[in-house]
Amino acid sequence: MGAAEAAKIVPAGWRWLGLACGVVAAFCFSMGTLLSPTVYAAGGSAAAIVVVRLSIILPVFFGFAVAAKRPIVLPPRQRYVAFALGILTAFQTLVIFTSFRYVPISLAILIEYTYPLLVLLAMRVLFGEGLTAARVMAMAVALAGLALALGVDPSKIHPLGVLLAALSAVGVATRLIASSRFLRTADVIRLLIHMQVAGLAVALPLFALLGQLQFPQTLEGAAALGGMAAFNGVGVFLALKALTLIGPVRTSMAQAMESVFTVSFAGLLLGESLSPQKILGAAMVIGAVATIQFLRNRPAR
Length: 301
Prior knowledge:
By secondary structure, the protein is mostly helical. Helices cover 79% and strands 0% of the residues. It starts with a helix and ends in a 7-residue tail after the last helix.
């Protein structure tokens, strides 16, 4: 029984805990995104962000496992799946941060956050998950809300940036679905350790060979990069816990809140305006997330 099936039978209180984990994970990912301009302004690169996030969070998870006397090594089959997920995550992170060079961050995030729809459709095709009219409508409302909240200007579109953001969406959807099938037997901490090891083992030498490792040249930029790593580690852990409680569809919907947090805190921390259009879009996304949480699994029409 996978995470999608397990989410149907856990108590309601635990489902709300899973939703809370997904939303807090979205907040953490948003804070990391908001720190990225500081890293770039200080001379840092997207490749450096990927490597540092992996390097900082790996010892934390490893130390926790040792202190708690928890086993670290996974069985061979699970180990290989975890390695594949780690490499996928590293390069998905690279392409979304690279896309910011070609299209506005708001547009890149909007494209990436089509991944809940990809998850919904893939779960239907691959595993027979119910695709009810209500769930499809909730997804449509969420995507429309994202478009309003992010205020995308259609004239500012670069094909390469769009392609990179779309690849990121596919990567996130693939990771969510694979993790949901894998988590039925795997320990989250051991999974994260193996994912971080694999991502770092591939990304560090490759990026160094290509000359892409450009680190921030100021103390402020270095602190921002460290903050991105910390927020990412907490977000990844909470997102994986959410998967075990509410499944990939509801988890992806909860994490769509990242864009709402990004718009809201950009207004508070970066001085960007919060227009009525953006506020309406945020309300639509929140309403869609709540609707998905309340919906029961019903046979698709």
